[in-house]
Amino acid sequence: MAKVTKDLNPAVKKMSLGQLQSARGVACLGCKGTCSGFEPHSWRVEAASRRICLSFLNVNLTRPHPPTPRKICKSCKCSQEDHCLTSDLEDDRKIGRLLMDSKYSTLTARVKGGDGIRIYKRNRMIMTNPIATGKDPTFDTITYEWAPPGVTQKLGLQYMELIPKEKQPVTGTEGAYYRRRQLMHQLPIYDQDPSRCRGLLENELKLMEEFVKQYKSEALGVGEVALPGQGGLPKEEGKQQEKPEGAETIAPTTNGSLSDPSKEVEYVCELCKGVAPPDSPVVYSDRAGYSKQWHPTCFVCAKCSEPLVDLIYFWKDGAPWCGRHYCESLRPRCSGCDEIIFSEDYQRVEDLAWHRKHFVCEGCEQLLSGRAYIVTKGQLLCPTCSKSKRS
Predict the structure, then answer these.
(1) Which three-class secondary structure state does DSSP give residue 170?
(2) What is the pLDDT along the chain (391 residues), one digit of tens a residue?
(3) Ranges of Basic and acidic residues compositional bias (predicted)?
(4) E strands within the chain?
């Protein structure tokens, strides 16, 4: 009997067909009602169910492994992240895994009975304001699904008021969906968890494990919200904190002058170079040092200029990057399966890359290695499918 291929994904083997099917029908946020709901490729479920059966029955096949399914909707062609298929619990587990084994592990908590699994201790913020309506007062409650860690409610609310309203993560609003989408886009689970990747060979698995270990040690960071000049200090509402004994003294060489003690120190945003008011919160990055600060709206990815979700960044070339673009700056990302490529044998066309087995037409799925192909707006097509799209 033939040997089972080594690229069976443990996460897929544990997944039931019902779980795969349950993802169907989730509305697309990008299509604004024109998409009927998330529809995976038909062969996606078939391939997964076949693998499940094989793992249960211990059956071996010589049949080649089908291409990794694209992480897009068959109905509208939008990405999974546009359908927000993750839950709060999945997000917290993902961030917990990302931060564990790093110096930010204090932002995680051990799951009871979870065999070492850690979960993100997400800071939710609930604001309740009484509204007087005659003799029957009511309460207006606003829940922020995420707030900066380690801050007072007053400072947290000040921070939120500086964020554009459409991006404030208030439960049930576009801002909350925007945050969940950014968690999927900027921090793909398959950029940190090898078990969520498909088809990694043994040497590629070792390369990825080292890759993740290295970025956790050298680049990963979580921004800190504080008033100007108070980065790295204990927080206490309404009080200027004393520096802990032995703490580094910050010389504001670029933010003010020490020559004239009568002049107030002027704090300047690292990105826009605008002044940061002393009573308005800023974001600090310990990777950058506490002599630098950013306005909350200026703490963005150096590549895509999008706000860094949950203030999670990767430090590179003197600037913060989102996880997606940091990883892509070091290794190519497959345009077919969206995973980082750890093989040295892959297909590259201009600025795009593919695993060899994923270099297929996005219309008819035929393998295009050694065949004619056309790349239009990032879409890989065979000549026949390209012609039918134009007609």
Answers:
(1) strand
(2) 333 333 333 333 333 333 334 455 666 766 766 777 777 653 333 333 333 333 333 333 333 333 344 566 766 767 666 666 678 899 999 999 999 999 999 999 998 876 778 999 999 999 887 665 556 666 678 999 999 999 999 999 999 999 999 999 999 999 999 999 999 999 999 999 999 888 789 999 999 999 999 999 999 999 999 999 999 886 554 344 433 334 343 444 344 434 444 457 899 999 999 999 999 999 999 999 999 999 999 999 999 999 999 999 999 999 999 999 999 999 999 988 899 999 988 999 988 999 988 888 888 888 988 899 898 877 889 998 888 877 6
(3) 234-246
(4) 108-110, 118-120, 125-131, 138-144, 220-222, 224-226, 267-268, 275-276, 282-284, 312-316, 319-321, 346-349, 352-355, 374-376, 379-381
Which residue type occupies 142?
A: I
CA nearest neighbour of 68 among 47, 38, 42: 47
d(CA 129, CA 142): 9
> What are the Cα distances from residue 122, in Å, to 109, 240, 310?
10, 26, 9
**Whole-angstrom distance, CA of residue 206 vs CA of residue 213:** 11
- Rounded Cα gap, residues 248 and 352, in angstroms: 45
Q: Residue 352's closest CA among 321, 379, 386, 387?
A: 379
Token pair of 106, please?
């204090």
Give the pTM: 0.77
3-class DSSP state of 233: coil
DSSP secondary structure letter of residue 141:
E
Local structure of 82: helix, strand or coil: helix
Please return the burial class of 177, using the count of CB atoms within 10 Å of its CB with bins 0-12, 13-18 and 19+: middle
Query: 313 near 307, Cβ under 8 Å?
Result: no
What DSSP designation does 271 have? T
Bridge partners, residue 347, by sequence: 354
Query: d(Cα 3, Cα 378) in Å, to the nearest integer?
Result: 37
Phi, psi of 246 (to 5 degrees): 90, 0
Is residue 122 within 8 Å of residue 92, measured between CB atoms? yes
